[in-house]
UniProtKB/TrEMBL annotation:
InterPro entries found in the cross-reference section: MLTR_LBD
MmyB-like transcription regulator ligand binding domain ranges (all copies): 3-75
TM ranges: none
Species lineage: Bacteria, Bacillati, Actinomycetota, Actinomycetes, Streptosporangiales
Name under which the protein is recorded: MmyB-like transcription regulator ligand binding domain-containing protein
Biological source species: Planotetraspora silvatica
Length: 79
């Protein structure tokens, strides 16, 4: 989850795009099983701890389907 670790924004080269994708997928999962306590607890914790998550969750975006590849930012490079 890219919301609770302050270093996460530096981990993905397109953090905001990946964060929106994660939230939209989580909303799809929660919608399919909206009474699952662990999912509700996760959303509650993220909502309390992350303003970014709160704003993205409030958009009500839903996304399912194949994962989209996303690049990581890393100080290591292939040679």
């Amino acid at each position: 989850m890219p919301f609770l670790d302050p270093a996460a924004k530096g981990f993905w080269t397109a953090w905001e795009q990946e964060a929106y994708r994660v939230v939209a997928h989580l909303r799809a999962v929660v919608g399919a099983d909206h009474e699952e306590p662990s999912l509700l607890e996760l959303v509650g914790e993220l909502s309390e701890e992350s303003e970014d998550f709160q704003q993205m969750w409030a958009r009500h975006d839903v996304r399912t389907g194949a994962a989209t590849p996303f690049p990581f930012a890393t100080p290591l490079s292939a040679t």
